[in-house]
Backbone:
């Protein structure tokens, strides 16, 4: 039997890269709900850590996620028919699923476990309350959404690297991209459906990072923390310790000649000193992910 893996404390609703992991699942493969929810979120829906989560790469109406139950004999029959184990109870996630909709279904799973009514009139109010709570987990604790909208300020409004992921993630959150729209986008961009899902996932991941770093603290932080794995740089890891500052700068190499259809370039290189460094960012030495320097921190060299 698969067991839920407990890790340290996490912030937010779901763990880093949880949606990406789910989107890689093949038919009837699953992960456990307890391995998706953060420890903070899981504490509010205890007892459902063992519930399997499956991925459906198709869109059915406007649903993002749904909790499903089968009678034991029906689950057994379908297991024999499919030739692969089908859990009698599970949460099924569609391409539009996000952290909030996952938590919504986690509440449904707990209601079912407790034997409470699952009719829409009975179950939906509690799930809606759960969504409101989940949104508070998914928002940085020191960001007041009602009083401050830093992404609409003039300087940040002009930054495409912030606004484009924000726009795509918010469109996805509305559930407005139905099958017809997704098909039309794939046709226009000459993409396969799974490639479109990957682009959406990248936008949502970027937006998560932006919310954790750009939707700023009220005062400058006294320490760094990786928004992907929560590492604070204090303990050594397999990849070293702390963080690295990264930037891009133009290098040049002399072109030797063109020979037999090959552009031959000398191996040694030099840096264009007149070019300023760009794309400043930090690299976490624990998970090796990159993230923006918090905007309320200035940089200096020592």
Residues:
């Amino acid at each position: 039997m698969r067991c839920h893996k407990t890790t340290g404390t996490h912030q937010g609703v779901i763990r880093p890269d949880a949606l990406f992991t789910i989107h890689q699942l093949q038919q009837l493969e699953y992960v456990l709900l307890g391995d998706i929810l953060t420890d903070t979120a899981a504490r509010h829906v205890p007892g459902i850590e063992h519930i399997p989560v499956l991925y459906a790469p198709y869109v059915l109406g406007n649903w993002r996620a749904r909790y499903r139950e089968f009678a034991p004999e029906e689950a057994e029959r379908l297991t024999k028919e499919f030739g692969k184990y089908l859990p009698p109870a599970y949460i099924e996630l569609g391409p539009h699923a996000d952290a909030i909709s996952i938590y919504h279904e986690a509440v449904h799973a707990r209601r079912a476990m407790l034997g409470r009514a699952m009719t829409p009139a009975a179950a939906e109010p509690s799930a809606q309350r759960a969504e409101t709570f989940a949104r508070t987990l998914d928002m940085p604790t020191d960001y007041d959404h009602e009083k401050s909208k830093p992404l609409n300020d003039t300087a940040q409004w002009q930054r495409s690297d912030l606004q484009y992921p924000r726009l795509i993630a918010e469109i996805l959150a509305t559930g407005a991209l139905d099958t017809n729209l997704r098909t039309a986008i794939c046709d226009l961009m000459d993409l396969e459906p799974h490639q479109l899902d990957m682009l959406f996932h990248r936008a949502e991941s970027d937006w998560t990072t932006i919310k954790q770093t750009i939707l700023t603290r009220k005062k400058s932080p006294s320490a760094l923390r990786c928004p992907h794995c929560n590492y604070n740089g204090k303990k050594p890891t397999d990849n070293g310790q702390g963080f690295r500052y990264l930037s891009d700068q133009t290098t040049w190499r002399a072109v030797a000649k063109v020979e037999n259809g090959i552009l031959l370039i000398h191996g040694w290189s030099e840096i264009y000193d007149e070019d300023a460094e760009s794309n400043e960012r930090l690299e976490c030495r624990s998970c090796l992910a990159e993230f923006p320097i918090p905007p309320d921190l200035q940089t200096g060299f020592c």
Notes: Residues 150-213 form one domain. Residues 61 and 222 are 47 Å apart (CA to CA). DSSP finds nine helices and eleven strands in the chain. The two ends are 53 Å apart (CA to CA).
